[in-house]
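Supplementary Methods. Inverse-folding protocol.

Structures were first reduced to a discrete structure-token string of length 486. This string, shown here, constituted the complete conditioning input.
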């Protein structure tokens, strides 16, 4: 059953890719419904867009636009802000090297090692890879080069496919109990690796978690422009939330911030806006994704005897006399600067179609969650100072209905709530939505629609999807082309 789901997911991804070709190939169009029926029969309904269920569209009418697919390379994202100071520019090579660094188990120098005992990948760039360093999953899943690297005895969890998005796993409850969990359960362990002799450590049982409905999957968020997002004032987010209330009310849009329980500020990183800053997120990612302990998260996530090879924390601020200035901060601070200084993505060329698409994006009401822009305040880092950023997000969380709900609360974000995804850069993105369920941007829009059930209220985006489906063919296509120009 679980394997069917995985296969169906990759099959669906592939089918999305051919969809763009369908208008040209009538015969393909005729076998598509049959293929979909087979998928339905296989119990894979979760990954089918509502528009094809039962041959009718919910909401009707059916969407007419097609996804032209991702804009080709070269990447129009990646690279650092052009306004960095000379001193900041000096450390660019060092922070890039840190983001790219492949971590081994044993620490052999102050800037090396610390992988495991459990991990998802061995470098930041493995996951944040496309269309350039800092982004999201690349076309072929790099975890297939990581899981048995250096002799590791891991098997690949069923939900990873070689041409699908990198997915990481969380459990809703602790396995076999009703005690809330919510944590990332790392896909792999260092067992069998040449640099981890004697370590015996099994991978989590993802099949069981899936059978029990306890498995939550998330794809990689891109990080471009995060340094600018993090300095946006809380009050700017609140003012924006409280603007256009009449329009929002008529569409059924509300939403609220995911406040930090510690300082009351608005968190904004991650699919549920569960983390406040690039520093915290980088420290967390070091430990959660790679098992590299650091000054913010100083203990190993898994402390199995025989699998601990280094004193903790494994990376620290470097006080060795004579060390290069740019090596002074610990590894995770350097990855923080990498993230903080990344340019926002540059949109592709605009045309009369994409300009009209932007107007339709407003007309359909998308813009009441996907806020066009914020302006950063006066900051102590001149490169981040007073810049208008076109991120297309309100940085708050919304009820998205049972269709997207993952059952996992995080801080103030409920089990069906997600941060409005910033849409900058989606022109070159390969997979959409928190679980990477589709490569088709039209499906991503349709999947915003879902009606209430006994567990969840309806999606706040329902009316905007109805509006989208009701746009004229040209207006709808222009809207989609506008999204692919971002
Ligand atoms: C195994 C894949 C993987 C690796 C390795 C990885 N990340 Fe991530 N990253 C993710 C995923 C998945 C998310 C979304 C997490 C969530 O919301 O639960 C994410 C989110 C982020 C975000 C938040 C972006 C946003 O705007 O919401 C930042 C920043 C980030 N990662 C930085 C890093 C850094 C720095 C490293 C290396 C120290 C790193 N990541 C390593 C998978 C990875
Ligand atoms: C109620 C707020 C809301 C409205 C209205 C809304 N969205 Fe979204 N949008 C979201 C949220 C939240 C997500 C992330 C959902 C998830 O990952 O499960 C999202 C994700 C997306 C994505 C995928 C981005 C990614 O990172 O994978 C696209 C594309 C998108 N929206 C386009 C649109 C369009 C076009 C409209 C109007 C027809 C629209 N949205 C209306 C809240 C909204």
């Amino acid at each position: 059953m679980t394997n069917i789901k995985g296969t169906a997911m990759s099959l669906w991804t592939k089918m999305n890719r051919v969809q763009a070709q369908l208008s040209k190939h009538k015969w393909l169009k005729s076998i598509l419904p049959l293929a979909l029926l087979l998928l339905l029969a296989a119990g894979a309904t979760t990954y089918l867009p509502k528009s094809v269920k039962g041959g009718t569209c919910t909401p009707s009418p059916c969407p007419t636009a097609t996804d032209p697919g991702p804009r080709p390379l070269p990447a129009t994202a990646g690279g650092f802000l052009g306004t960095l100071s000379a001193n900041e520019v000096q450390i660019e090579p060092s922070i890039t090297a840190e983001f790219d660094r492949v971590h081994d188990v044993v620490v052999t120098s102050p800037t090396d090692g610390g992988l495991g005992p459990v991990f998802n990948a061995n470098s930041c760039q493995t996951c944040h890879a496309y269309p350039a360093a800092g982004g999201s999953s690349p076309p072929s899943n790099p975890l297939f080069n990581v899981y048995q690297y250096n002799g590791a005895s891991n098997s690949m969890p069923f939900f990873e496919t070689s041409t699908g998005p990198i997915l990481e796993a969380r459990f809703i409850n602790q396995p076999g109990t009703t005690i809330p969990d919510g944590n990332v359960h790392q896909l792999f362990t260092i067992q069998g690796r040449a640099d981890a002799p004697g370590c015996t450590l099994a991978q989590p049982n993802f099949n069981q978690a899936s059978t029990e409905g306890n498995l939550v999957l998330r794809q990689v968020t891109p990080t471009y422009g995060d340094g600018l997002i993090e300095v946006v004032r809380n009050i700017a987010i609140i003012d924006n939330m409280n603007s256009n209330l009449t329009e929002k009310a008529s569409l059924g849009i509300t939403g609220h911030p995911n406040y930090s329980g510690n300082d009351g500020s608005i968190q904004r990183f991650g699919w549920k806006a569960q983390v406040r800053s690039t520093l915290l997120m980088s420290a967390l990612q070091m430990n959660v994704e790679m098992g590299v302990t650091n000054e913010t998260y100083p203990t190993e996530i898994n402390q199995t005897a025989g699998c601990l090879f280094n004193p903790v924390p494994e990376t620290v601020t470097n006080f060795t006399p004579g060390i290069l200035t740019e090596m002074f901060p610990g590894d995770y601070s350097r990855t923080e600067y990498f993230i903080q200084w990344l340019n926002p993505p540059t949109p592709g060329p605009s045309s009369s179609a994409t300009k009209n698409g932007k107007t339709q994006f407003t007309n359909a009401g998308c813009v009441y969650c996907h806020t066009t822009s914020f302006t950063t305040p006066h900051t102590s880092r001149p490169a981040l100072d007073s810049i208008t950023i076109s991120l297309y997000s309100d940085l708050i969380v919304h009820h998205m209905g049972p269709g997207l709900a993952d059952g996992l609360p995080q801080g103030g974000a409920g089990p069906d709530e997600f941060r409005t995804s910033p849409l900058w850069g989606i022109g070159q993105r390969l997979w959409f939505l928190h679980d990477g369920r589709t490569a088709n941007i039209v499906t991503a829009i349709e999947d915003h629609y879902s009606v209430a059930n006994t567990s969840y209220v309806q999606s706040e985006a329902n009316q905007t999807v109805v509006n989208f489906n009701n746009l004229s063919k040209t207006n709808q296509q222009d809207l989609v082309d506008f999204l692919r120009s971002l």
